[in-house]
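Tutorial handout. Part one gives the primary structure; part two gives the three-dimensional structure as tokens.
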Amino acid sequence: MATSRKHKTISKLYKSILFLGGVFAFIFLILLFILFSPNIKLESGEKSYLLIPDNSTFENVIDSLNKTANINSTFTFKQTARLLNYGKKIHPGRYELKNAMNNFTLIRKLRSGSQSPVKLSFNNIRTKEQLAKRLSVELMADSTSIVNLLNDSIFLLQYNFNKNNSVSVFIPNTYEIFWDSDAGDIFMRMLKEYNKFWTDERKTKAALIPLTQTEVSTLASIVEEESNSKKERPIIAGLYINRLKIDMPLQADPTLKFAYGDFNLRRVAGALLKTNSPYNTYINKGLPPGPIRITSPEAIDAVLNYENHDYIFMCAKETLNGEHNFASSWSEHQKNARKYQNALNERKIYK
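Part two.
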């Protein structure tokens, strides 16, 4: 009898263990499903990024995720976040989403702040405002904060820049930078690249002209505006350096266009020449206060490697192809100028 009871007790215990084992197995399978079941659906080959701004809440993250990707189950995402203790501290940033990504992988990425950097490129930009707008399209920082920083004399002074030449620090290229960078982060990253660009060799060449680094950028911006022809740029740079050395006004049309705020002007004459601005190099000797565009590395190197010659005059060619005729004397320059003016008149270009 005792043996029979003992067998029954063991049998009940065994069944209870099996039942509990089944329950735990069921719970374990549910956990596996919640954590590791694919939950992000993207088109084949498509790249998508979840953008999380500063001061975002967990609900903001959910909303952004729903707008950015086809998420199969918001419920399982929330449960995973709860299990992994994500939600109290939200790291802003740009996070790459992949097709069939599971909740565990995504939450770990968000929780650790493992964001994907932006490949930031900028070129062919003339003003601070254009630069700030371009950067704000790619990064979290708004354009106003960027412009304000580039005009902040106290901040800039500690890095030997001022509000007129602060754009010199931006040398066009492609850079990797985190999306959540603010205006200060952006400036410091560009300063790092600026210092890397200005090697000892470049610094030595600048000193021999002699110009400071920011003055080189300023002159290079004028040279770049003057001609799209890379082969002409060292010639033009040499011409302006010749003028600087003899204390002759640069009389560079692009500086007047910058001062006037219209880069599409074809004829720079008359009242325009009297525009009251420190950037008007017809009435002010020497270089203007700062660059008139974001200067390319090629234009900077064209100044540093300027061509030695005796030209002090230049005029756009009558072909209107963007190239120039160069002259050492005023009489020769006048002949070139008449050719250009006649070409404009023939094409009925009056401004």
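Part three, for discussion. The mean pLDDT is 89. Residues 29-112 form a domain with the Dna Ligase; domain 1 fold (CATH 3.30.1490).
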